[in-house]
Design a protein that fits this description.
This protein is an alpha+beta fold. It has 22 helices and 12 strands. 30% of the residues are buried.
């Protein structure tokens, strides 16, 4: 018969302090070295002026995050150790105390032990704030923000560890399952999204995953809290999660059998969820790994098979607590049958995902770019959308050609070009698709889109600036030779920007796809932001304006180079992993090299060179009066005739 006792039991309290008090002391000592002591050393001798800190999390953040993520789970493991040891469990549950009281005492006192070091450290920083004049480095409110967020995430991880302790009878399994549970929502979303790309033609995992979904895993948010701003909604969600987990843990503890110790999972109903959950996740991970490594759907299927088998065996080993396991083939066969049915359903495309394309009269505007990262911008920027009906028609025709070609189904997923489409519909919805293609097969349609005035204006920031806000224009040479000039006169700035715009509006698609080194880099400095462009060989208006106003000497010319050595790439052993010195030595020793000394030949070669060793020829430029070399490449189609004639 249970006796009526108070919620507080002195012997239980003593037992708790003996088992986990050391965790609190260790946490406090670590935080002392990471924050107050570190601050005292930095700011008492004036070294702090050489460092920049956004907030208190910036101080040794790696160690702060490691403690924030590790200490709460470790404490929960040691705190509820009595649930995993038979003698200890029998002793605790033989006491004349209700289970509800045991749970509340252990959980709440453990929580008090956890947050005490955090509160003490915040108090110490407050004491140091005035003597060390820390107001010059961070505001007083930062201390309370650090205190609140650190307590919040410690609470989330601690309560998660407590909840998992109620369903596990092995401490190490409890710890592992806690972190899996904290990562599972986001991890599963990532795995499913990337694997769907193999079965749904046009599905964009990046678009799904970039929609600020990392908040669904508090573990991921905590790992970047030094620059991550927690919203009010997230704060409410995490507090709600803490409350739900607390009462869920209480419910599970009351339902748990006392004899359920030394079992990985103490509730039989959870075992199939664990077994097939691990199998499913490992299958997706295997498919993703082989798919990304080999870029072929056959390898994706091999990855699925290998991952599923491995995951199933691991799950059985955990549940049976041995590597010498009894394999239940019937369950695995049923799992495989279910997955095959799922794959068949995906391939049938019952939702018409692959074929779905909005009609012309449904489209308000369309975004088209060469990959998702041409669409994804910062929060304070807007994605560009094309609204002219001709451009919408051109984009739609390109999209239709890709669908009819089905090229993306065969193309190696690791290579190729990306085509990203985002249709904004008149009903407020969006249709987003992304494909891997060989852009060369669609050059005609790309040309129509890229050469349209609307596309050029939308994709070049120079058309969005207020010309009167331009404070300076800087032009830098793209070479070892340090050349720089600036345009400061108001009228000249306006004329130069006009020339730039004219060159952009008249540029051809073929020019935009050129990979040759630009003459120079242009930096337009405004009151709000900087804009960066290139001065390329086909920018005739810019070149003419610079020549007429005496600024053209900023670019690299043949006069800056003493001579150059060039070889055919396939005639020597050269790769991009080699250093400049190794490539230079290889070319100098080659018997099949061509030496270029004539200024006009050097100038002609410079115009068509590409970055580093990209191309059919590799060139080493030796500069005048500079003990350095620069290595570039040049393609066979761009190479001057004198190079082709001498290096056959």
């Amino acid at each position: 018969m249970q006796s009526k006792t108070s919620l507080i039991n002195k012997e239980v309290i003593k037992s708790i302090f003996r088992s986990v008090g050391w965790v609190s002391i260790l946490y406090f000592l670590c935080l002392i070295f990471i924050l107050p002591l570190n601050m005292f050393i930095l700011f008492s001798n004036g070294q702090g002026q050489f460092y920049y800190y956004d907030n208190l999390f910036s101080y040794n953040f790696f160690y702060q995050a490691a403690l924030m993520i590790g200490i709460p789970v470790i404490l929960s493991m040691f705190l509820f150790r009595f649930l995993q040891v038979k003698q200890y469990s029998d002793f605790i549950h033989s006491l004349p105390i209700k289970r509800t009281s045991i749970f509340h005492q252990y959980t709440l006192l453990g929580y008090f032990i956890l947050i005490t070091p955090i509160v003490l450290i915040a108090g110490l920083i407050l004491l140091l704030y005035s003597p060390l004049e820390l107001n010059g480095y961070f505001p007083l409110t930062d201390i309370f923000e650090w205190l609140g967020l650190t307590i919040l995430f410690n609470t989330v991880f601690y309560i998660a560890g407590v909840a998992v302790a109620m369903i596990s009878g092995i401490s190490i399994v409890q710890g592992v399952l806690t972190y899996i549970a904290l990562l599972l929502p986001l991890g599963l979303l990532i795995l499913i999204s990337y694997n769907l790309q193999y079965f749904l033609f046009g599905f964009s995992a990046e678009y799904i995953l970039q929609n600020k979904l990392d908040f669904i895993s508090p573990l991921v948010v905590a790992a970047q809290i030094n620059y991550y701003s927690l919203s009010t909604i997230q704060l409410v969600l995490y507090i709600g999660l803490i409350i739900v987990l607390y009462f869920t843990a209480l419910f599970l503890y009351k339902k748990r059998n006392v004899e359920s110790v030394s079992h990985a999972l103490v509730f039989p109903i959870l075992k199939p969820f664990f077994k097939y959950g691990v199998t499913f996740c490992m299958m997706l991970l295997g498919g993703l790994y082989f798919g990304e490594m080999q870029g072929d759907r056959t390898w994706v299927m091999i990855g699925y098979i290998f991952g599923a088998i491995l995951g199933y065996l691991i799950a059985e080993m955990v549940l049976q607590k041995s590597w010498r396991i009894t394999v239940h083939l019937k369950g695995f066969i049923l799992y495989c049958a279910a997955i095959i049915c799922l794959v068949v359903l995906l391939k049938m495309d019952l939702m018409f995902f692959e074929k779905k394309m909005p009609a012309m009269n449904e489209i308000e505007s369309v975004h088209f770019s060469e990959g998702y990262y041409g669409y994804y911008l910062e929060e304070d920027q807007e994605q560009y959308f094309l609204k002219e009906r001709d451009n919408i028609h051109f984009v739609q025709q390109l999209h239709k050609s890709i669908l009819n070609n089905h090229e993306g189904r065969r193309l190696d997923s690791r290579f190729g070009d990306s085509a990203f489409f985002a249709y904004k519909l008149k009903n407020g919805k969006k249709v987003v698709r992304e494909y891997k293609i060989d852009k060369k097969n669609y050059e005609g349609m790309y040309k129509l889109i890229f050469e349209s005035e609307e596309y050029k204006i939308a994709t070049n920031d120079i058309f969005s600036i207020n010309e009167n806000e331009v404070s300076k224009i800087m032009i830098h040479s793209n070479s070892i030779v340090d050349k720089i000039t600036s345009i400061n006169k108001h009228e000249e700035k306006l004329e130069f920007i006009k020339a730039l715009k004219q060159d952009i509006l008249t540029s051809k698609y073929e020019d935009m796809q050129e990979m040759t080194n630009p003459y120079a880099s242009i930096n337009i400095i405004t009151d709000k932001d900087d804009i960066y462009l290139d001065w390329n060989y086909y920018n005739k208006e810019v070149e003419a304006w610079l020549n007429n106003h005496g600024y053209s000497d900023v670019r690299l010319t043949g006069d800056d180079i003493d001579y150059a050595l060039i070889v055919k790439k396939d005639a020597v052993e050269i790769n991009e992993r080699q250093s400049y010195e190794e490539i230079r030595d290889t070319i100098e020793k080659s018997p099949n090299k061509l030496k270029i000394e004539k200024t006009s030949d050097l100038e002609e070669t410079l115009v068509k060179t590409r970055p580093f060793v990209d191309g059919d020829y590799v060139i080493v430029y030796y500069y005048k009066d500079i003990n350095q070399v620069e290595i570039s490449g040049i393609s066979a189609k761009d190479a001057p005739e004198f190079i082709k004639n001498n290096l056959k």
